[in-house]
Amino acid sequence: MKKKHIITITGDHASGQGTLTDFLSQELGYEIYRNGQYARKLALDMGMSIVEFQTYLNEHPELDRKIEKSATEYASSHDNLIIDAKLGWYAVPDSFKVYLKVDIDTAARRAFHDEKRKSSENYESIEQAKEKILYRYHEENRRWFETYGIRREDMSNYDLVLDTTYLTPEKVKEEVKEKYFKWLEN
Fold this sequence. Notes:
The protein is an alpha/beta fold and 186 residues long. The chain has helices spanning 17-28, 35-45, 50-59, 61-76, 88-91, 104-113, 126-148, 169-185, and strands spanning 6-11, 31-34, 81-84, 96-101, 160-163. It has a five-stranded parallel β-sheet with strand order 2-3-1-4-5, sandwiched between helices. Helix 1 (17-28) packs across helix 8, helix 3 (50-59) packs parallel to helix 7 (126-148) and helix 6 crosses helix 7 (126-148). The relative contact order is 0.20.
């Protein structure tokens, strides 16, 4: 059976998912689907920060399922696609599944200084960014285990796991491309 040309990218918060997605899309000519943008838009539409929305999702698992199902539905009718989604690997199990790891102190610095995050994640300090990132990570893991019975921190779920703490975005992109093309061949 021929594999679909779909890469799902997930990982720790501020690990470089968005940057990698953009780099790969430009280089491979693949379309992008971002669950995170969808969730952030829902949060903003509801007048919530992304952390407040996280709490809301804990009480409304049907909305979480809707967010994840959107990636599954989109992938079913598309090829040459990169899905930037925390549960993309679960939503599209026949994709090439990438997990990006990052040290929490590096993640907090990245998130604090990232201008694109300011509308939905405005932190007063790097320490506050660290606290909120850890909160989101643990709440997501708890909710996803309760809702789907899955553990994203189980690295056996992925075809490739990279720690981006000390890697340049260019190096991450090259490593993913190399492993992705090998995966397509096998």
